[in-house]
Amino acid sequence: QVQLVESGGGLVQPGGSLRLSCVASGFTFGNYDMRWYRQAPGEERELVATISWRRGTNYGDYVKGRFLITRDNAKNTVSLQMNSLKPEDTAVYYCNAQQGAINYWGKGTLVTVSP
């Protein structure tokens, strides 16, 4: 059974930091590209960051220089270190695993950036 379980969300003040984690099971984690998406209320889901199975990374322009995506294949985990958070980073953050046409999704973790 495939599972992606996110954790680490919460309430943080502007300028603060959070670290999200996603633990995967039920598939060969090391063979998949991993992504973090986010969806703010009333908005479409948008891509935040990608780390390929070869560990190449890409970021949305709105998080470049502030967020860092990493993966630990031994622990089947992908993480997102988020620094210098802004109120506009408030969203539900989703973990995604992708290989070809196969996509798996987690249920999301809420990040709220507010004074």
Describe the protein:
It is a single chain. A hairpin with a 4-residue loop joins strand 7 and strand 8. This protein has no helices and 11 strands. The chain is an all-beta fold. It is globular. Strands 2, 4, 5, 6, 9, 10 and 11 form a 7-stranded mixed beta sheet that branches. A 4-stranded antiparallel beta sheet has the order 1-3-8-7, with no helix packed on it.
Give the helices and strands, then pairings.
Blueprint (H helix, E strand, L loop, with lengths): L2 E5 L2 E3 L5 E8 L7 E7 L6 E6 L5 E3 L7 E6 L4 E6 L8 E9 L2 E4 L3 E5 L2
Parallel strand pairs: 2-11
Antiparallel strand pairs: 1-3, 3-8, 4-5, 4-9, 5-6, 7-8, 9-10, 9-11
What's the short story on this structure?
The chain is an all-beta fold and 115 residues long.
N/C terminus separation: 40 Å
Biggest beta-sheet profile: 7 strands, mixed
Overall mean confidence score, pLDDT: 97
Which stretches are poorly predicted, pLDDT < 50 over at least 5 residues?
Answer: none
By helix and strand content, what is the structural category?
mainly beta
The string of secondary-structure elements, in order, is EEEEEEEEEEE
Helix content: under 10%
Tell me the Rg in angstroms. Answer: 13 Å
